From TrEMBL:
GO terms for cellular component: lysosome; membrane. Transmembrane segments: none annotated. This is Alpha-galactosidase. The keyword Signal applies. The gene is NAGA.
């Protein structure tokens, strides 16, 4: 076995400042219309799926009644194509009167009465991506105040039809304007996605100060290829992205498509596991009225949600990339715990991957490995070889409880993996444990 990528570089989270609105200390969770329902406005012919208040109250009912809300899925987020083509006589944005007869303010009441929150969408340019009225520089204060008046809880600011210099002014200005309303409103910035997602064009220090979350990369589509391209980009750039994340400030690899049409069961488990490792916002974009039991079980998996919502808010990393196509992902968690995901890029058959926690740089000691999908628990010593059988495009995901003597900080101090992780441990000659 050859490990040819084996360096962890990170900084302790909490060293950078987060947007000071007190919100989203763990990644936000909920539902967002875009990937599944797009800009379907044909309510005459497709009343169940068109962008209308009925779609959002239907999803709210499902979140409140089918066990989602209690797990943290509380945001019900409108995306593009909600507004009228015209602003009102005072110049304010208004909802399309036919598709949103009760209006956005009443819709937010509907959410709040059910213990949920409402998110809304706007765009930095002259128009939204779908061609609806935008929120350019001279409309920022007015629109922020309108959203606050409607008691909205989150705002996604897209970037179509704007250029780099407008974005540089507009995204911070909107942050100030939202703050000035006095209403805490979670702020999602699409800015970096329009600037290639990487320095020097993107300043992640600044983003963390003005936004709660930000889209770094292109839109997700309902396919495995799309999920894989997102995974590749985020982990190939983990040295830039991971230090940017922390409580109140998150990288957003885009929506969960689990429950839609493009992913197999194994691929669905992979998306959920890697979004948990990445400390990604968990916004489902699916039809909660008809979702399968299998997809629901994955999205409601408490171990995965627990990993995603870990209060330390440290974004995990890929720590191993094998020639065999097996990759290992690691995220440190509170109480000296951690999460491990073994992912297979293979397309032949389940691959039996043999490793040990010692090979994965865990320090000497006994550990408990809880398999997030089979719920089986196994005790292993750091040097004990074990075998995981990883399905093609699937994962094996563990919650690892560490011995009390491990100090997570020792993994991360000085930005380099060091300290007891390299402590000598006696090679354990026991036969491999199968998990
Ligand atoms: C506005 O910003 C100030 C200073 O950063 C902060 O104390 C306050 O909580 C913020 N208010 C809202 C509503 O975000
Ligand atoms: C909207 O809410 C107001 C009170 O908040 C209520 O009087 C009105 O009937 C509601 N309208 C609709 C269409 O639900
Ligand atoms: C960006 O757009 C604004 C407004 O349309 C325009 O005045 C400005 O020249 C543009 N800047 C660049 C760099 O294209
Ligand atoms: C990035 O933003 C931070 C905070 O706003 C600022 O202090 C820093 O100078 C910026 N870095 C660059 C390279 O512009
Ligand atoms: C984590 O490890 C540190 C350092 O060995 C130890 O002091 C602490 O008690 C451990 N914390 C927990 C919750 O086990």
């Amino acid at each position: 076995m050859r490990l040819f990528l084996f360096v962890l570089t990170s900084v302790l989270s909490g060293t950078s400042v987060a947007l000071d609105n007190g919100l989203m200390r763990t990644p936000p969770m909920g539902w967002l219309a875009w990937e599944r329902f797009r800009c379907d406005i044909d309510c005459d012919n497709d009343p169940k799926n068109c962008i209308s208040e009925k779609l959002f109250t239907d999803m709210a009912d499902r979140l409140a009644e089918d066990g989602w809300r209690e797990l943290g899925y509380v945001y019900v987020n409108i995306d593009d194509c909600w507004s009228s083509m015209e602003r009102d006589q005072q110049g304010r944005l208004q909802a399309d009167p036919k598709r949103f007869p009760m209006g956005i303010h009443n819709l937010s009441h509907y959410m709040h009465a059910r213990g949920l929150k409402l998110g809304i969408y706007g765009d930095m340019g002259s128009h939204t991506c779908g061609g609806y009225p935008g929120t350019p520089l001279d409309k920022i204060e007015l629109d922020a105040q309108t959203f606050a008046d409607w008691e909205v809880d989150m705002f996604k600011y897209d970037g179509c039809y704007s250029n780099a210099s407008e974005q540089e002014k507009g995204y911070p200005l909107m942050s100030k304007a939202l703050n000035a309303t006095g209403r805490p409103i979670g702020y999602s910035c699409s800015w970096p996605a329009y600037q290639g997602g990487l320095p020097p064009k993107v300043n992640y220090t600044q983003l963390g100060e003005i936004c709660n979350l930000w889209r770094n990369y292109g839109d997700i589509q309902d396919s495995w290829g799309s999920v894989l391209s997102i995974v590749d980009w985020f982990f190939d750039n983990q040295d830039v992205l991971a230090p940017a994340a922390g409580p109140g400030r998150w990288n957003d690899p885009d929506m969960l498509i689990v429950g839609d049409f493009g992913l197999s069961l194994d691929q669905s488990q992979t998306q959920m596991s890697l979004w948990a490792i990445m400390a990604a916002p968990l916004f489902m974009s699916n039809d909660l009225r008809t979702i399968s039991a299998d997809a629901r079980r994955i999205l409601q998996n408490k171990a995965l949600i627990g990993i995603n919502q870990d209060p330390l808010g440290i974004q995990g990393r890929r720590i191993v990339k094998e020639k065999s196509g097996i990759e290992v992902f690691f995220r440190p968690l509170q109480n000296n715990g951690s999460a491990l995901v073994f992912f297979s890029r293979r397309s032949d058959m389940p691959y039996r991957y043999q490793t040990s926690l010692k090979k994965l740089n865990y320090i000497t000691g006994s550990y408990e490995l809880f398999n997030a999908f089979t719920y089986r628990t196994m005790q292993v010593k750091d040097a004990t070889d074990f075998v995981v059988s990883v399905n093609p495009s699937g994962v094996v995901t563990f919650l690892v409880s560490a011995p009390a003597k491990i100090n997570r900080r020792q993994f991360y101090s000085g930005g380099k993996l060091q300290g007891p992780a390299f402590e000598d441990a006696e090679e354990n000659s026991l036969p491999p444990v199968f998990l």
